[in-house]
Amino acid sequence: MSKPKKIIDNPTSAELLKQFEAFESLEALYKAFPFARRLFPKMEDAFNEFKKIKKQAEILKVPDQFNERFASLGWIAYESMNMEVMQKAINIHDTEGKGAAEKFLADSYDEETLKWGILRFNGNRDFRKRIRLTELARDDYLAGRYHACTPLLLSLLDGLVNDVSKHVGFFAENVDLTAWDCIAAHESGLQTLASILTKGRNKTNEDAISIPYRNGILHGRELAFDNKVVAAKCWATLFAARDWAGALDDGKKEPKPKEEVSWKQLFKQISETNLMKKSIEEWKPRISEDIPYLPFEGDVSNLPENTPEHAVAVFLDHWCNKRFGPIADALLYFTDTPKGKKSGMARQDFGRHVPVSFKVLGVDDQAAAVTHVITELHFEVDGHEKLKEVSVRAIYQDLENNPSVRSMPGGHWRIVQNSFTDIIYAPSL
Predict the structure, then answer these.
(1) Could you tell me the end-to-end alpha-carbon distance of the chain, in angstroms, rounded to an integer?
(2) Integer CA distances (angstroms), 211 to 79, 91, 203, 215, 216, in order
(3) For 28, phi and psi rounded to 5 degrees?
(4) Average pLDDT per run of 10 along the chain, which is 429 residues long?
(5) Other C-beta atoms within 10 Å of 139: how many?
(6) Nearest alpha carbon to residue 232 among 132, 101, 133, 123
(7) Distance from C-alpha of 118 to C-alpha of 239, rounded to nearest angstrom
(8) Residue 364, beta-bridge partner list
(9) Dist CA 66 CA 141 (whole Å)
(10) What is the maximal distance between C-alpha atoms in the chain?
(11) Is 137 helix (H, G, I), strand (E, B) or coil?
């Protein structure tokens, strides 16, 4: 019988561990030949930095450790779950017991966690359709009405999986909730969780339960399901399903061909990493008040190119003129979406409320790759002007769409769509 695979065996984690092993072999060779130290004196610094990175990589083990303790209780690890929460839950489980750990996990699904979890629904069409009902479930949950939110969340979960898979719902016997290189969709994740939540509940039960057994709850056999732990597990499962849907959007249903990393590529990566580190250390944020051309309105070509404010101004100019193709090109995407589909999504999202003009008020350089550009958007609503101040998040990426330092050549600024959530998804302004 083959040994069950772990999440750390997922290709992304496994490849990183493989590179660690290769780097350790290189370090052994470097130390074995004294002349290598004379030829490459700065390699010692690289090896010291590597040791720190390897220590931080211990975090790769956390999802497996979490599932080993909590999957049978109805909790699983998923990509967007807070890693510190996972680690602390593991520690509480091992020191104080599973009851205290479950209480801690349930308490972690607070208003802020739900806010950001639901906000991510905007990135998927099937989830976006259900935001209204999800927000009603959130209101019930935060008010302690667990009897109301739990059946609704189970219903939403079933329908979402049906729509995303285009096959069957979450609680169907033949559902496939696995995906390649995904924490939530690992075989120890959602697939295992579905088998637990669909267990038959053939007798009416008046005792409190701690797992949201779908059949018992929706068929009226579980009469004491209305507690925070059960409801929180429904939220956790729903958010894990969102990560599974994201993996499918990324084309991770099937494995991708492996790419071998050569020694030359490895040395190149080390060199680029050192250059990146130096650039980050040298970077300093600007003071908005000291930028002479701000506040700005008018011809966007008058703004300095390759600055976040220029990228945002160009984006807003496209929006004012309903150029949805360029809008789609400028947005930051977390999935490999076809260009035609991107344009259609941009038209759907940005075509509802279109500004007539805008002004760039200032900038807030938050990191070497991140700036918030403060803007003022002007709308016409029923013959009246309406102003909306928006902090637009812009991220600098390299040619492979990885975050980079703005001083590195060849990069581009991308606009984060969530900056406009309160406008583009609002029923009215």
Answers:
(1) 61
(2) 22, 21, 16, 11, 10
(3) -65, -45
(4) 59 56 48 46 53 57 92 94 93 96 97 93 91 96 98 97 91 88 88 94 94 96 97 97 89 61 54 62 85 93 93 96 93 68 86 94 90 95 92 88 80 90 85
(5) 13
(6) 101
(7) 8
(8) 372
(9) 25
(10) 79
(11) helix
**Residue 340, both tokens:** 């035609």
- Cβ contact 280:380 at 8 Å: no
Tokens of 177: 């909730």
Report the pLDDT value the prediction gives residue 271, as an integer from 0 to 100. Answer: 54
Instruction: Collect all residues with Cβ–Cβ distance below 8 Å to 223 and sequence separation of at least 6.
Output: 204, 205, 206
Amino acid at 371: T
Length of the chain: 429
Of 333, 337, 332, 312, residue with least CA distance to 248: 337
DSSP conformation class of 296: B
DSSP 19-86: HHHHHHHHHHHHHH-HHHHHH-TTHHHHHHHHHHHHHHGGGGGHHHHHHHHHGGGT----TTS-HHHH
Give the other-Cβ count within 10 Å of 252's Cβ.
21
**171-177, long-range: CB < 8 A, 24+ apart:** 171/197, 171/198, 171/214, 171/215, 173/198, 177/241, 177/244
Q: Are 179 and 189 in contact (CB under 8 A)?
A: no
CB atoms within 10 A of CB 184: 29
pLDDT recorded at residue 332: 84
**Rounded Cα gap, residues 294 and 184, in angstroms:** 45
Instruction: Evaluate whether 102 touches 210 at the Cβ level (below 8 Å).
Output: yes
CB atoms within 10 A of CB 330: 21
- 8 A C-beta contact, residue 269 and residue 215: no
Sign of CA dihedral 31, 35, 38, 39: negative
pLDDT digits (tens, 9 = 90+) for 367-402: 888 899 999 999 999 889 999 999 999 999 887 777
Query: Quick count: other Cβ atoms within 10 Å of Cβ 33?
Result: 10
pLDDT > 70 in the chain, percent? 79
